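Re: [ENG-882] Designed sequences occasionally contain unexpected residues at chain ends

Forwarding the minimal case from QA. Structure tokens:
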């Protein structure tokens, strides 16, 4: 009887071994696997590997989102890897997993899952003051050779002493799982982190306590020495700048004849009555003469208060040609407001990419007195090439120059960029997509908004254009047509409004009278395209256009 049982056991072992030695052993392994209730099977259909995942089970009262905490992958050669909070766990160095072999069978896999369920996720260092210190160091701590020793981890919340923390500090060698609340590596690093904070807090509090408004007699001796050093440095810089300006003035400067200036001023004072007799009061010529006389008499042009009409005239000159205005002002022949003064009028409110409420309010004020027939407008949009660069806006604190195509398109682009590239890097814009409102029966010409891009598509244009139309219709304007050049993204946008077919019009969903909107290609652009096709037409060129072919297409007798 014993020999029979032994032979049966031997036979079963041989059959199991045989079943795992064929071409697809992972399939039989997967079929024999019993997944615990706390885990879920996320293996791919092709079964190139077995993936078991565990999701956090936070109480509903904490309102914490569900997060994938553990991910166990079993390869086709039965080796395995474990990820906790998106960090790889090396079971060879992790003391809690040191008893698990490199390859798994059904028994060792069951033991591994039970062991992981009983282990705690390392909480790292959740102290708010320590997190603030590391965040001030750009979120990481470097060693002497530049290697990252510890960093701030905000992948998922960690639970400690009944509280969930959104950020914690982990060492680069954190074991991630432990039988206690904190792994051995993080426990050993904690005294170092505390000592580092002690040194950092002393220097930080010293710098923050010193104010420019503090009386010098209340400063400590080190603070006084530090202030004296800064003062000497500033005086040295001022001295160097003065020497540099003196050198430039001596080499390239021209002396102004004070006598000539006084003579001109005297002549202007003598001829003022003659000018007033020729030009009536309120005329621009008389106002211009009076303003020039006041500017010439002023000891400092910064004290000059310019008339609003002169400001408008100078704005017109500068907008026609900024270089011409600069050249005219630099001659000194006429006194004109500085470009910094004009900037206060041209930049009435701070511009930024995308939709702006202030622009819509300004457009509403401009069209509020228009009669109903003059409210028909056309939306014109086009892309222009700009220099790729980043600029810091001191008013908003933002870096200007990245792509911005509205909230919907920005999120879609971020998702697409994240899928293609491992590191999400915001691209720099190289083109500007500009929208303008033109009146069909009025002189309305209003630049409405602009977006930074690297080349748009029809799908990107769709939400932007219709949002522009919705805003214009909301203030009483009636959009009759959309005008653009014949670029492929624009033609694709036209097709999207007619279910894939070429469309020349569509219904305006934002119009109360079910008005239609027409799509128009810019006629000058079409003429330029025909011109280019003719210029490149040759028997051996990129295209071969014949007059007879064109006349047949348009039913015109030309040959």
């Amino acid at each position: 009887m014993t020999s029979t049982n032994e032979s049966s056991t031997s036979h079963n072992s041989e059959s199991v071994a045989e079943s795992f030695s064929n071409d697809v052993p992972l399939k039989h392994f997967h079929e024999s696997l019993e997944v615990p209730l706390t885990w879920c099977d996320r293996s791919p259909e092709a079964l190139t590997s077995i993936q078991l995942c565990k999701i956090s089970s936070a109480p509903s009262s904490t309102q914490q989102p569900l997060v994938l905490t553990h991910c166990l992958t079993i390869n086709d050669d039965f080796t395995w890897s474990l990820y906790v909070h998106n960090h790889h766990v090396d079971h060879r160095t992790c003391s809690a997993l040191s008893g698990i072999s490199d390859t798994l069978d059904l028994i060792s896999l069951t033991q591994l899952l039970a062991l992981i369920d009983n282990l705690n996720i390392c909480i790292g260092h959740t102290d708010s003051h320590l997190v603030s210190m590391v965040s001030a160091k750009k979120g990481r701590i470097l060693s002497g050779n530049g290697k990252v020793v510890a960093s701030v981890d905000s992948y998922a919340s960690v639970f400690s002493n009944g509280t969930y923390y959104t950020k914690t500090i982990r060492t680069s060698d954190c074991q991630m799982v432990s039988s206690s609340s904190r792994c051995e590596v993080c426990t050993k690093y904690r005294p170092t982190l505390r000592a580092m904070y002690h040194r950092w807090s002393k220097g930080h509090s010293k710098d923050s306590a010193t104010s420019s408004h503090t009386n010098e007699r209340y400063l400590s001796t080190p603070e006084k020495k530090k202030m004296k050093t800064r003062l000497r440095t500033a005086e040295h810089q001022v001295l160097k700048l003065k020497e540099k300006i003196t050198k430039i003035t001596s080499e390239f400067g021209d002396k102004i004849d004070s006598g000539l200036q006084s003579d001109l001023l005297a002549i202007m004072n003598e001829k003022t009555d003659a000018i007033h007799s020729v030009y009536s009061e309120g005329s621009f010529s008389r106002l211009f003469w009076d303003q020039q006389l006041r500017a010439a008499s002023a000891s400092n042009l910064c004290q000059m208060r310019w008339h609003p009409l002169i400001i408008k005239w100078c704005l017109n000159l500068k907008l026609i040609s900024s270089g011409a205005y600069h050249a005219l002002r630099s001659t000194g022949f006429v006194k004109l407001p500085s470009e910094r003064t004009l900037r206060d009028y041209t930049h009435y409110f701070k511009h930024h990419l995308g939709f702006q409420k202030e622009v819509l309010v300004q457009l509403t004020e401009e069209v509020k007195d228009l009669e109903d027939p003059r409210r028909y407008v056309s939306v014109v949009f086009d892309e222009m090439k700009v220099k790729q660069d980043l600029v810091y806006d001191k008013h908003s604190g933002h870096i200007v120059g990245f792509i911005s195509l509205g909230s919907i398109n920005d999120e879609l682009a971020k998702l697409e960029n994240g899928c293609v590239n491992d590191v999400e890097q915001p691209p720099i814009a190289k083109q500007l997509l500009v929208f303008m409102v033109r009146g069909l029966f009025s002189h309305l010409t209003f630049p409405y908004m602009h977006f930074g891009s690297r080349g748009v598509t029809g799908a990107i244009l769709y939400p932007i254009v219709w949002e522009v139309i919705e805003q214009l219709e909301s203030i009483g304007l009636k959009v009759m047509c959309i005008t653009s050049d014949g670029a492929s993204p624009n033609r694709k946008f036209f097709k999207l409004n007619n279910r894939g077919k070429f469309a020349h019009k569509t219904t305006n969903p934002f119009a109360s009278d079910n008005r239609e909107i027409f799509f128009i290609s810019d006629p000058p652009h079409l003429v330029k395209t025909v011109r280019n096709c003719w210029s490149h037409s040759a028997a051996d060129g990129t295209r071969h256009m014949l007059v007879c072919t064109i006349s047949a297409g348009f039913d015109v007798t030309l040959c």
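QA comment: On inspection the terminal residues look reasonable. Residues 1-24 have pLDDT under 50 and may be disordered. Proposing we downgrade this to a documentation issue.
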